[in-house]
Amino acid sequence: MEILLGYGNYAIALATMIGIYAIMAVGLNIQWGLTGLFNLGIAGFFAVGAYASAILTTSETAKHLGGIGLPVVLAWPLAMAAAALVAWAVARTCIRLRADYLAIATIGIGEILRLILKNEQWATGGTRGISNISRPFEQLPGVWASVAFLALVLVLATAAYWLAERGRTSPWGRVLQAIRDNEPAARAAGKNVEAFRIQGFVIGSAFMGLAGALTAHYFKFVGPEATDPLQVTFLVWVMLIVGGNGSNRGAMLGAAVIWTMWSASELFSSRLAGDWAHRAPFVRLFLVGLTLQIMLQYFPGGLMPPVRRTRGRLPRKSAVAEPQSPPILPPF
Q1: pLDDT (tens digit, 9 = 90+) per residue, 262-278?
Q2: pLDDT score of 34
């Protein structure tokens, strides 16, 4: 019975993290899959949302900012707003940069945000982080607390997918895809390219801030290790590429596949002994990298590539016989 309970707790934890990563993957799909914005600073916006929600909900202490005591119903939207505000400031500065330059700028800004949050001890607790963060439904007995939190995460992930999908199929989403495919043509059509790119960047970063807030409350702790770019930025990119760039369903499927692989490999490596136990983290990275290479070689569109709707040809109009001029008779 204890073994079954252990497997059940593992399945709940696995599904919870899949839901959180699915929100981040959908946010990245809005930025890269729809708008073509190469964001490598995911960890920074994730950290802003995590720390903002932790500060807004924890009790007063001398170790870091706190004492506001807001419920999560208010703290999570404010955490999304904080990540969106930072993303807006970044986008106003860097949005005109093209793919590789934008990637360099965002990874630098993301690391700056992480270092600020790590070193401002008066606000974030520094290297000790923020602990004793409240988790919704933690007062429920036994496993029901984890089940209830999982249900909440799945509801939010479903809502994020629905909003992203509605945005993708709306005129706004079609403009974003037009900018991604042919920016000069979008400009020629009279679209404000910079404004649409900023909107896509801000909305995607808000989703990442929500994922950070959920992670902080799920683990009841947030610190520099929780915002490691390897587990936040790199894995989310692999999830989107494996699932299908430009597809919201693919982003969620990629989150499920990659996080299951990552978690299962950690579970397997924890049973190793000797030198293999020290080599296990590198083996995990090798497996993820190998999966990425296989997908790029044999499935470049991902497991669930975006479906492009094409309108059928209109039936050709029947040719109308043009009136013929009367024949010219020869003179007698």
Answers
A1: 888 877 766 666 666 66
A2: 93
- Is residue 324 scored above 60 in pLDDT? no
Non-local CB neighbours of 300 within 8 Å, separated by 6+ positions: none
pTM of the predicted model as reported, rounded to 2 decimal places: 0.89
Task: Encode the chain in three state secondary structure.
Answer: CHHHHHHHHHHHHHHHHHHHHHHHHHHHHHHHHHCCCCCCCHHHHHHHHHHHHHHHHCCCCCCCCCCCCCCHHHHHHHHHHHHHHHHHHHHHHHCCCCHHHHHHHHHHHHHHHHHHHHHCHHHHCHHHCEECCCCCCCCCCCCHHHHHHHHHHHHHHHHHHHHHHHHHHCHHHHHHHHHHHCHHHHHHCCCCHHHHHHHHHHHHHHHHHHHHHHHHHHHCEECHHHHCHHHHHHHHHHHHHHHCCCCHHHHHHHHHHHHHHHHHHHHHHCCCCCHHHHHHHHHHHHHHHHHHHHHHHHCCCCCCCCCCCCCCCCCCCCCCCCCCCCCCCCCC
Q: How far apart are CA 244 and CA 262, in angstroms?
A: 18
pLDDT at 83: 96
Burial (CB count within 10 angstroms: exposed 0-12, middle 13-18, buried 19+), residue 318: exposed
Are 117 and 47 contacting, i.e. CB atoms less than 8 angstroms apart?
Answer: yes
Say if residue 332's pLDDT is above 50: no
Alpha-carbon gap, residue 103 to 29, rounded angstroms: 15
Rounded distance between C-alpha atoms, residue 252 and residue 25, angstroms: 7
Give residue-wise pLDDT tens across range 50-69.
Answer: 999 999 999 888 888 888 88
Identify the bridge partners of residue 130 per DSSP, sorted by sequence position.
222
For the chain, domain boundaries: 15-227
pLDDT at 74: 94
